[in-house]
Fold each of these.
Amino acid sequence: MQYKIKAPGAIKNVIQLPASKSISNRALILNALSFSPFDIDNLSDCDDTNVMVEAFSSGSSLIDVKAAGTSMRFLTAFLSITPGEWIITGTERMKERPIHLLVDALVSLGARIQYLGKVGYPPLQIKGTSLNGGEIFLSGDVSSQFISALLMIAPTMSQGLTIHLEGDIISIPYIKLTLGMMAQYGVKTHWDGRTIKISPEEYKAMHYVVESDWSAASYWYEMAALSDDSRLELRGLFKNSMQGDSKVAELFLDLGVATEFTNDGVVLSKTDRMTKKMFHNFVNEPDLAQTFVVTCCMLGIPFLFTGLQSLKIKETDRIEALKIEMKKLGYVIYDSEDSILEWDGERCEAEAEPVIKTYEDHRMAMAFAPAAIKIDHLNIAHPNVVTKSYPKYWDDLKSVGFTIE
């Protein structure tokens, strides 16, 4: 299936954004670890969160996380301390996503985990047991989800856990988000330089409300930037957010979009401010990269984006996917060092009716759809991938006047 996208002349509406997947998935783990009797308010309705809800409620020892990378990592750690025998698996793509660094760390702490297929990759067989804890050394440039998975179960370990991060530390805001939420659930943490220390401690149950998703907000910022006439109110966002992707509000200032915070969220409006070339290190906000690549090209703004090393191990190799799909729209972008994307203004002949391939990646669909504001006859293949994080995305686009066939 594919959608043909046509954009309206003006984009104005009030949008209730989906709940944050990152916060929802952490809250589910922390709720379970605190044996909380409370439901979580405004829990995300996306695929990644739903597979975790299913895992906690099904009573089955076979857990299929489908394409949910966050769920695979968080649940692998959680199940390693949960009495019982478990098998955790996922899609064929999930079975190609390495997990050995997390498994090695857990095994070194006393976990009992075996590979059921290719060594280093899901599916896994896990026998839940109490973990001793202690000290481990991890490369700081691994997925922050590996680190967060270990951090959340650290207070349950008899000796607690000290993690020494080596080399460059990427996605720091996601680690801070995890530690911040652990503090909300009553656990003290200590991060000094490259060392994070967590002592044995019991989580305290609490009533938790999930903030809306700043990553989802980025696509509306993109629409505001690309449209000549836009005014959007995005509800459910906090000014003092723990989400790293809240950086989007600051970054879009250079692309002509101003943010006003209200009691209900934010209001986006157009400005005349526009950079001549955009430079940014996305090491702390890798999920924003696709949004800014498409936006800058559509606005004719050259860019140099660094810190993208984690993009190659996401739902797809996002660096390669961006190069291929932007070329269909007439833009030639280059990569280097497995972590840099650059566009110097080079163009090529665009396809007459481009069909954007989504690679089982929700962010490819959502980042490219707004390009219809600048490009007629834009098509998105396999549009249902958005259910991974933003199930109502296409309905929300229709609500502001997009035609989707």
Amino acid sequence: MFGGMAFLYAGKMQIWVLDDQFLVRLIPKPTGNGTRKYDYASPMDFTGRPMQGFLYLSSADMDEDSEVHEWLQKSFNYLK
């Protein structure tokens, strides 16, 4: 659907990876899931209408691998 590689959990797309960018599924919040705090995070928007609960993240712009792990953990916490 999007190209790249998607990882499903319980039949739902949880993480999607393409090159140095990935998409994570988070709990939708009116504040935009904290994207204002991170230069490398932006709302998922490929149609002109952002999707609530999904963020694009650029791993190339992250300082450490631990940041990637933190975002993946946040995504899986969405399921709990």
Amino acid sequence: MKLLLITSIFFLLAASDNWQPNQAPASKHKFIIAAHRGDHVIYPENTLAAYKEAIKNEADYVEIDLRTTKDGELVSMHDGSVNRMTNGQGQVKDLTLAELESLTVKNKDTTSTAVFRIPTFKQILQLCKNKINIYLDFKAADPAIAYQMIKQYGMEKQVLVYINSAPQFSGWRKAAPKMPLMLSLPDSVKTVAGMGDFITKYQPDILDGSYKQYSSEMVKLAEEKHIPVWPDIQSAGEGAADWDKALAIGLSGLQTDHPAALVKYLKSKGLR
């Protein structure tokens, strides 16, 4: 689960009077599905296999977590350490790419003989190009280096960046002014007026947060300002009852742990 942004961390960011939100990457679907850490119902999270499964199951985005190795390479790993997800120990930032690539990622299916590895950002960009957009949860990396790699693979129009701190926000605005940046609506914002103030002050291109904190009036305000609202709904027990609530308030996208099931649900509603 991503940490929600705390409003106060952005107090140094200056607002621009003529600001207009950058557009999110284009999609052929009206309702956007972001596969949380890939489609990890079958395959381990943040692996190429999980991303391939999300592509196969018609998700619009794969959400990946970007971190930097000891020798400056970019890899996808949610946690700061490799302890939970691999047969190794230690912090990503303290391990070289070669050391990380020697590890195997744990598989929930203990009967499987398949071997999974920590993927590099380069591998993910190659896999996703012209197949699926990338929802880049920017955990620990340099915006300029990440954007240079995105440009190298011609993926400028297929990536949005989820921001976790004020330096990341200003770093991305400097390195890539047209890159769409996603901010979480803080838990403290519970009204239309409060959301309007947040948008005016921090100028998000896309809004995230928990789907439970949005009302239909808040979603309508975001639409008027041309800001997509694609919040988190992911959980082990996530299902049709939750998706019904999301549709009822007018949401146009969700980050989910069950992309294949959500696609099937939307098709049953005539929305895909």
